[in-house]
Amino acid sequence: MNRNPVIPYVWIMVLGIGLMIGLGFKGLGDAEQLAKELEGGEEAEKTEEVADAGPEDIYSAKCLSCHGDQKQGGVGPALTNISLSEEEVADVLTNGRGTMPGGLVPPEQVDAMAKWLLGQE
Question: Which of 39, 64, 79, 92 is the most exposed place for a label (fewest CB within 10 A)?
Fold first, then answer.
C-alpha cells in the first residue's frame, strides 16, 4: 500500500485553519466585552456601588491590597498614626502620591474617607 505523505500535513492545515477561525470569533466576543467596559458599562456600575459605600467598604475594595487588612502597610505605607492634615490626606486620595494612583476614592467620598483614616489609631 502506498500512502500519500502529504495527507497528514493537509489534515494539520485544515485543523489549524479551523482553530484560527474559531479563536477569531472568540476574540471578537472578547473585543465587544472590552469595548463595553471601556464605554463605562460595567465599570460605571462598580463605581456607583463604591460611591454609595462607606469609608470601610471603600478601604476594603480599593486600599486593603496595598495598605494591609489592619492598615499596617505592605506595598504602601501604614495608615495608622498619620501625620498629615485632613486636607493633605484628601489631596493624596484625590491626586495620588508616589506609586499610589489618584482617583481610587470617588470625589464625593474623599472628605469622609480622610476623616475616617485620621480617626484610626
Answer: 39
Residue 13, annotated as binding a ligand: no
d(CA 32, CA 100) in angstroms, rounded, equals 30
66 labeled binding residue: yes
Which CATH code of 3.40.50.170, 1.10.760.10, 3.40.109.10, 2.30.30.140 fits the domain covering 55-118? 1.10.760.10
pTM: 0.56
1 is in an annotated binding site: no
